[in-house]
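Problem 12. The chain below contains 172 residues. Write out its predicted structure in token notation.
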Amino acid sequence: MNWRGVVAVAGLGAFLGFLLVVFSYDSFENELFLYAIPLGAVAGAFAGSRVEEKFTASSLAFLLGLAVTLTLGLLWGRWGIGNARFFLAFVTVLMLLIKPSSLKDVALVPADYTGGFALSLLILKFYGPIQAVEGGIHAIVVFSGMALTLSFFASLGRWGFEKFRSIGKDNA
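Solution.
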């Protein structure tokens, strides 16, 4: 079993569950509907067990979206963070270091990062100190949007550099 495919498609499933929650938010007042996000992640993990392609950048994007957002929320709720640029630099550098396997891998990065971000926000829903911080959730959403954008462009840049670097080698 290819663990990168499992993680990448689980992130895509969490993203699709997140879209389902966002687009049907007004029509459902039941909070149990929020669990479409982890159910989508589990369904995506089962579907990803059949994927043969190794998604390196998108699987890392899902894990980064989950871990960085969860870490930022826990730190922010407990001690407060005045400067979160370290996390943006960490995400950007890590995504520049990882070589994407294909353009499909790069295209899945925003969806997978958003899936990890949505799953971590669902976990942070039950964390009281972050709810008490004025504008804490809004700041985390804005930060995650910036990290999502940087991770996508870093991954796209790395893929482009690898493709353009091999142009001269193919003709020699």
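Discussion. Residues 52-171 form one domain. Students who got a different answer should revisit the alignment rule from Section 12.3.
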